[in-house]
Write a structure and sequence with these properties.
By secondary structure, the protein is α+β, with helices and mostly antiparallel strands. It is 54% helix and 12% strand. This is Polymerase nucleotidyl transferase domain-containing protein.
């Protein structure tokens, strides 16, 4: 955790004590963004989710600068240098606790990521913490489904000869577009392996480099998987090769830790991802049942 994170968390706690604790509508406050992740720097805003019940939008503003001396809120676009220097800038995402705790309410994946990895600053009854744990739980079936999907597509996009075929048949634009898709599936694999929900696109790399496990090849050559080092065929081939190495390393890790039981994780993923009757591995059984339909 950066020193700036601790400072800003203390500022948030002070704001909660002064302005929110006495408000019965405030059910909980969760610091998100860099404050929640522990990576805040000097000019980071204080971003937080505020759960409200009843949903009273006049408890706290969505975005403002608070001046404690006279307990007033001001526009973040103020030109008052004193206010900008000494005031406390806050950015609150105000959520209806009753709606968000409804079993029928499905949280978006970025919200699961943001709130689930946040820092709970205020939760007097424990209800907010219990809700977050329930709504952001990453179960085994979700993890395996996402790994299977990514592996099947990556095998199609990166298998031997495929990048060459795409480049020669469709040209560089389509070729790199296919590699963009491959990179996205590699990211899906890394998040799923670590049981983490994918966050907002604008924060994805910041979150990705903080995952507990990443392929060594990503650490060493990740940039060349994201972008081509040149716009010619050699740059394209190098990009495809880097992603193939990352996939190979991740497949090896999945076999080592027992997530995939067979020596052919691609085949295992494909079969599990296409379990319906009439596939190559069950065609005999399908044929028998096909012929038995009229009996």
């Amino acid at each position: 955790m950066t020193p700036e994170t601790q400072l800003k968390r203390n500022q948030l706690l002070h704001f909660i004590r002064v302005k929110m604790e006495s408000e019965s509508a405030v059910k909980g406050v969760v610091a998100v963004g860099s404050i929640g992740a522990g990576t805040a720097h000097e000019d980071s805003d204080i971003d937080a989710v505020v759960f409200l019940d009843p949903y009273d939008l006049y408890v706290v503003p969505a975005e403002a600068i608070w001046r404690e001396e006279d307990d007033t809120f001001h526009s973040i676009f103020t030109s008052d240098e004193s206010l900008l220097k000494h005031g406390l800038q806050v950015d609150f995402n105000r959520l209806n606790f009753k709606e968000w705790s409804d079993p029928a309410c499905s949280w978006t994946e970025p919200m699961k990521s943001e709130i689930g990895s946040g820092w709970i600053a205020f939760d007097p009854t424990g209800d907010v913490g219990r809700l977050i744990r329930h709504k952001t739980f990453y179960d085994n079936s979700t993890r395996l489904k996402r790994l299977d999907e990514a592996i099947v597509w990556l095998d199609q996009l990166l298998n031997e000869g495929e990048p060459d075929r795409v480049w020669n048949t469709y040209g560089p634009m389509v070729g790199h577009d296919r590699l963009n898709a491959a990179y996205d599936y590699l990211v899906q694999m890394m998040f799923a392996y670590n049981r983490k929900w994918r966050t907002w696109k604008t924060r994805e790399m910041t979150t990705l480099v903080q995952l507990p496990w990443r392929p060594r090849s990503f650490e060493e050559h990740g940039l060349s998987a994201i972008v081509s080092m040149s716009d010619d065929y050699e740059g394209y081939k190098a990009r495809a090769y880097t992603m193939s190495r990352m996939l190979e390393e991740m497949l090896g890790q999945l076999m080592v830790d027992g997530t995939y039981q067979s020596a052919d994780p691609v085949g295992e993923a494909f079969i599990r991802n296409h379990e319906e009757p009439g596939r190559a591995w069950n065609i005999r059984d399908w044929m028998q049942k096909h012929n038995d339909r009229g009996n």
